[in-house]
Amino acid sequence: MDGVLVDSPHERAWREALAGFADPAGFTTAFYQANVAGKRRLEGARTALERLGGPQAAARSTEYANKKQALIDRLIEEGSFEVFPDALRFSAALKAAGLRLALASSSKNAAAMLSRLELPDGRTLLQLFDADLSGREVPKGKPDPALFLLAAEALETPPAQCVVVEDAPAGIRAACAGGMTSLGIARLGDEALLREAGADLVVTSLDHVEIAALAMGTLRAQAAKEPVANA
Known about the structure:
Blueprint: E1 6-7, H1 10-16, H2 29-35, H3 41-51, H4 57-77, E2 82-83, H5 85-96, E3 102-103, H6 110-114, E4 131-132, H7 146-154, E5 163-166, H8 169-177, E6 181-185, H9 191-197, E7 201-203, H10 211-215
Parallel strand pairs: 3-4, 5-6, 6-7
Antiparallel strand pairs: 1-2
């Protein structure tokens, strides 16, 4: 969800909550994508504190995670997020093509945000999805594929016939580990990170994915349009 469907305040909340735990100067967008995005809350908190040299990282990770959660709850209540227009078009087109959709975010805040985003026909964005596994407790978080495998089960679809859309390397690795096709959406100039993680296709906009091909079981980008010659 975060970074794929919604431009959410998660990165901001993680960074602002760092005060008193570690120096937030090192918490860049690149750091967030590589170390926190896509991971479960406590794992992301511990990893961030360890990598930033925060004292007693393991012991203080729960406190840091709780502070971050309180902040993001407030930001969500204030409506400090918005849907990516290409993601809205992509989701609606997939649904119209007869594909079944599942949310499988590590975040427990998916429903809170997507239920606030309305489609032109009056439905909420959350209602486009046939299943919501977001925040589900699993033995291991991404890059372990457990959450994605639960999503495939909820959709009654074999993993090999599933496509995972992710903006985080941890999520791409989870898709690969689960035997699923993976589509990386690089909104932050991080195409290389997603390719290195094993993404089958990386795009900078979901508008670049060929919906008709995907509905037939093939993931590919739309062919580049030829420039129109001057008359």
